[in-house]
Amino acid sequence: MAATAAAAVLSSGRFYALIGFEIHVKLATHSKMFSSSSSAPAQTTNSQVTPFDMALPGSLPYFNRTCLEAGIRAALGLNCQLNKISHFERKHYFYPDSPAGYQITQQRYPFASNGVFHYPLLIKKDKLKSSTKYKFVDNQNSFVIKQCRIERIQLEHDTGRSIHDDHQNRTLIDLNRFGTGLIEIVTKPDIQSSLEGESFLRELNRLLIKYNICEQSGLETAVRVDANVSLHRMNTKPDGNRIEIKNLGSFIDVRQAIDFEIKRQEQLLTNNYSIKNETRTYDTNKYQTIHLRRKEDQIDYRFMIEPNLPPLYLYDDNDKHIYGKNFVNIDDIKRNIPISPLDERKQYLDKYKDFLTAEHLHELLRLDMIDYFRDVMTHLDNNHLRHIALEVLLSDVKSISYDGRKIRKFAQAVSPILFADIIKHLEKRIITRFSLYTLLTLCNKSRDSTRSLKSFLDEHNMYAINDENELEKICLKILEENPKQIDRYKTNPKKALEQLHTSVCKKYHGRIHDDLVNDVFKRLLDKRIK
Amino acid sequence: MSLFILFRRSFSILQQTKEKILSNPIKIDIDMQNKLEHLSLISFQDEKTIKKVEQTIHSSNIIHQANVDHLQPLYTLVETELCPLRQTDTISIEKTLQTKQVLENAANIYEEHLVAPMIGKRESQTVEKVDTTKL
């Protein structure tokens, strides 16, 4: 409902939205950013803490090179300018899960800035009917590509974990998470709808995982998003006021929160109220944003340069005469980063142009199936098989595993090798198209990716019946059981054949090929009529 | 003689500065009081304390008379150094404290958690709630 309302607001022509994100990404490193304790999640309480993490007197930060390299990969993936000199700063505030009384960050002097990120607009096909302005493909071979400017990327560390005990009026603190390395990605307000926001975040998620910047699960555990949303009357300039929505933890939350906020601000503007700076949070139970604090209550963080950390220097090939191997060379990292998701998709469209279109690829992206598709393609050696595999992925597999989480589970249960084997069997007519959904469901439910296809087919007797004599016997038996269809064939042959086909499929569990059984029925019925 | 003139001149500048400051007394209003209390975690209990703070700020304001236009701030004593990098991303068991060491100076602990008074949900954190009476 909020989505429809927000779409109506934006398509009315009276308002436009400006949306920007602040994204905190937990870096995939073994140890923390400024200390050498483990950054692994879900460990015994307060068992991964060094003196620095507790802010004990005399302890000093020692910056982890791996965090810097992960940050640089993110900056290169987001086409940012890398600042060769950057500074760490202290952001002061009192909270029990931050023992030092400040967080080390890079608010004013970040290591990367002024980037731009291109992402494909993803939309469900059926939504096109209600919002035709959202074209998602330009032509056969390309997506509609949007862009969002990146203001800065900064290195910082995470805080500890707080558990509020309302009954005992106390807060329980676990410092295991304190000091874990993060990067904060701050975008410009270039996003104009929740659809664009979700598309941007999905593509960013893909980049973060592909470049090994954060853990595999991405947005669900390793990424936190804050959205800044403001709605303005058409033909007016933005006044700088915006609503900050904190701690959005999933793509759905991001979309719903933005849609709710757009509708809420539209109501305020329509009633001649102005939008004032405010921080809100999203209630996932009530599907709405809730006030946290006003601009007047905004905290003064008293930023100052971190006196215990000298300036951070980055080098490139031009500085070879200055740096030693202990320092980070940006060009070395550039040479070793993988291809971007955008370029990878262009490659697929080029490589599989015989059967793959931008529409197909868009659907694979939307369903989070692109990696599974890539792995399956490598195990099939001709385009005919690959085309069949694509068709099965976008029909049967889509029905079984219709969202990102389910496709990951499907990919674990039905390995790309097993799936490729199924496609080869289908092509050789060892199994029928009709039995494919059942077979894939059985493989998915068994959760045993080491099992061979033969064991499934033997256990459930799913081999296709290809012998002509046996087929004829089966069809004769079906005709005896359905005498009405013989008479019906004289007046309405198409309907009669359909009914007979349904009967044989039900009785023989999809083990008979459509084309073969239809031919046999036609031959037998024509013979009878004559 | 010249030293005496220099001394008189310095004293006169100091006197002028003091007069300038005294003619612009500091007054802490209620918003500023709330802000200072929030930043320092100190409660200004009464008028007497606020007065003392005002006087302290008053006296400290002389620092603004220094001409620093031609100076850059010294943020760190090691600003000419390069930020040293921990080269390997390995976990150090030796440097990691045991849980009992983390908790040994805490006045209150609960199931290996440090215990702090309830302050309120911080806006940038997803905070979990638990009813420990049911544990």
TrEMBL record, chain A:
Pfam family of the protein (one): GatB_Yqey
One Gene Ontology term from the biological process aspect of the record: mitochondrial translation
Keyword Ligase among UniProt keywords: yes
Main location per the UniProt record: mitochondrion
Entry-linked Gene3D superfamilies: 1.10.10.410
Stretches assigned to the Asn/Gln amidotransferase domain: 371-504
Gene Ontology cellular component list: glutamyl-tRNA(Gln) amidotransferase complex; mitochondrion
Keywords, comma-separated and alphabetical: ATP-binding, Ligase, Mitochondrion, Nucleotide-binding, Protein biosynthesis
EC supergroup of this enzyme: ligase
EC number assigned by the record: 6.3.5.-
Catalytic activity line of the entry: L-glutamyl-tRNA(Gln) + L-glutamine + ATP + H2O = L-glutaminyl-tRNA(Gln) + L-glutamate + ADP + phosphate + H(+)
Single GO molecular function: glutaminyl-tRNA synthase (glutamine-hydrolyzing) activity
The keyword Protein biosynthesis is annotated on this UniProt entry: yes
Subcellular location(s) per record: Mitochondrion
Assembly information from the UniProt record: Subunit of the heterotrimeric GatCAB amidotransferase (AdT) complex, composed of A, B and C subunits.
PANTHER family: GLUTAMYL-TRNA GLN AMIDOTRANSFERASE SUBUNIT B MITOCHONDRIAL AND PROKARYOTIC PET112-RELATED (PTHR11659), GLUTAMYL-TRNA(GLN) AMIDOTRANSFERASE SUBUNIT B, MITOCHONDRIAL (PTHR11659:SF0)
HAMAP family the record matches: GatB
Family the UniProt entry places it in: Belongs to the GatB/GatE family. GatB subfamily.
Function: Allows the formation of correctly charged Gln-tRNA(Gln) through the transamidation of misacylated Glu-tRNA(Gln) in the mitochondria. The reaction takes place in the presence of glutamine and ATP through an activated gamma-phospho-Glu-tRNA(Gln).
Protein name as annotated: Glutamyl-tRNA(Gln) amidotransferase subunit B, mitochondrial
From TrEMBL, chain B:
InterPro entries per UniProt: Asp/Glu-ADT_sf_sub_c
GO biological process: regulation of translational fidelity
Protein name: Glu-AdT subunit C
